[in-house]
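Researcher: If only I could read backbone structure tokens as easily as an amino acid sequence. Walk me, if you will, through where the backbone shape changes along the chain. I have put the entry right below:
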Amino acid sequence: MGKKIKLIQCCLLAIALVSVTYATPVDTHGQLSVKGNKIVDKNGDVVVLRGMSLFWSQAAEGRDFYNADVVNWLAEDWHANIIRIAMGVEGDWGPGAEAYLTNPEVHKQRVKTVVDAAIAKGIYVIIDWHDHNADKHQAQAIAFFEEMARLYGDKPNIIYETFNEPTSQSWSTVKRYSEAVIGAIRKHDSKNIIVVGTPKWSSEVDVASQDPIRGYENLAYSFHFYASDAHHHQEYRQKADAALNNGVAVFVTEWGNSDASGDGALKRSNMDTFMNWMQERQLSWCNWSIVSKGESSAALKAGSFDKDGNFVHSASTQGGWSENDLSESGKYVREKMRQYNPAWEPTPVPILKKIPNEAVELPHGVFDANKGVLIYDQNHDAQGRMR
């Protein structure tokens, strides 16, 4: 039987296959902002960030964890969607352990390493001026935050924390300092959230909320607690509840499972009470801290100094930790983070694969890849169906 052959120009250039990639927290939530007493995402939905704080950046027990591998491990294995950089501003703890005021370039490089890693991984990052006397270092803080805002102000990943923990300073002193630093940041970054420290080790958010900073958007106020401390109980939570009722956003940029010294016996019932309280109030948080120091707040088991004064860590400084590497606090926080933070959601992405440069036989014709044409008989259409 004779066949009439048709030539149909074909635009088929590739075969579409489906691969799976993952939407990161920043892909999902995008630019954060403050709406009332809540932190919301690009869609206006409440977002809760949960992650870890690094330790003082000058400390031998903690500075080696300021690297991309640790950021990636916390994001992937712990499901962290935020990391906090605790840049130690003052306090020189020996040779090689000088603080920012003594050796600013070293600390800025540590900050940039972690910020760049967080941006690449798609999680949020707090740049924290980790200082108890920031009001005495206002000029240095302004210069630092202006530099960070110029570098990273266009990235939605960034959150600024301008004063870790005021101690005996009044709110009026903290407020005056904060307004100056906020103004400097806003010259270069008009959108990203700024977290303001509050008096008495960032516990008196209620006091700050009675006289909040005005004239700027997207401000939150820091609240710190240590769950096993005898004094950090209902009275502390009431302070934060009062601030929320006064309409300001509260961000728990630092909390520990230990007592306020960073050490001491852990009290599981207190830990659970605070955890449930944060969950109910949709508060974002960072746990103190990724360090292998001999303290119960440390997430990793204790390392030690050798006879030459070099610190030997108990676990890898590149992440990849087993459960045996973690302290009691580390196990608890990892469990809660994996419970509350969703794993990154798979997103189908088309991957294009070239067709081989040869003729391919089809049921009712031939596709010639070199000529880009499909040849089929007159009784069937291009899909091989009977006419």
The first strand starts at residue 5 and ends at 9. The two ends are 17 Å apart (CA to CA). The longest helix spans residues 104-121. The chain has two domains: 1-21+359-387, 25-343.
